[in-house]
Amino acid sequence: MRRLRTVSLPLIFSFATAALALNGCVPPQTTIQESVDMHPISVTLEETFTVPRQQIFEFIVAEDVLPKILTGYGPLPAVVTTRDVSGPWDQPGSWRHVVLADGNTAREEVTEFKQGDYFAYRINEFTFAVKYLATHAQGQWWFTDVGTGGTKVRWTYTFYAKNALAALPLKAFAGILWRGYMQVCLDQTSELTKTH
């Protein structure tokens, strides 16, 4: 897969924010409830793996997996570690901080965990530029058996824009850069879970 040339992510959002400001329409603050009701922006990818469902599930939800599979895409930095884990990672309510290669962080909290079937989490407290556009995000993974010993994985990542104006640059970001970041993640997962 061809990688995008590296540019500054804050610069991308600076241009978007500056364009809004010059037009007199800097997005006002909104509540999380408003953004949930009005401005979700989702990206969904599906991948079929040639390994059993329980195996791929355990790999993806493992507490130490992120640096192995979120290796960066274009201007989006890799995850280098997680810290401050509050509890067992298979328990809803447990949270941690995800640390990126550029030093930025986000808070991730498990919201649902159904062994072998479904995993969901909420991301907020971004320290990077997306904090100006989104209140939070949600990740969801579904796992289903395919054929004899294979697994179909569906991953949906939803950003919740602060308002309709913020949704415009956020939609472009999610549809191009974040989609690429997710695809690299699935490609890495496939490579690391291949059976020989």
Protein topology:
Blueprint: H1 9-22, H2 32-38, E1 40-49, H3 53-61, H4 66-69, E2 79-83, E3 95-100, E4 105-114, E5 118-124, E6 134-146, E7 150-161, H5 164-192
CATH architecture: 2-Layer Sandwich
Unreliable sequence segments: 1-36
- How many strands, which pairing sense, and closed or not: the largest β-sheet? 7 strands, antiparallel
How many separate structural domains? 1
**Which superfamily, in CATH terms, is the homologous superfamily?**
START domain
Average pLDDT taken over every residue = 85
What share of residues is helical? 25-40%
Radius of gyration: 17 Å
The global form is globular
How much of the sequence lies in strands comes to: 25-35%
**Highest-level CATH class:** Alpha Beta
Q: Within the largest sheet, what's the order of strands?
A: 1-7-6-5-4-3-2
- Separation of the first and last Cα atoms: 23 Å
Given the structure, what is the number of helices? Answer: 5
Query: What is CATH's topology name?
Result: Alpha-D-Glucose-1,6-Bisphosphate, Chain A, domain 4
The arrangement of helices and strands along the chain is: HHEHHEEEEEEH
Structural class: alpha+beta
Count of distinct strands: 7
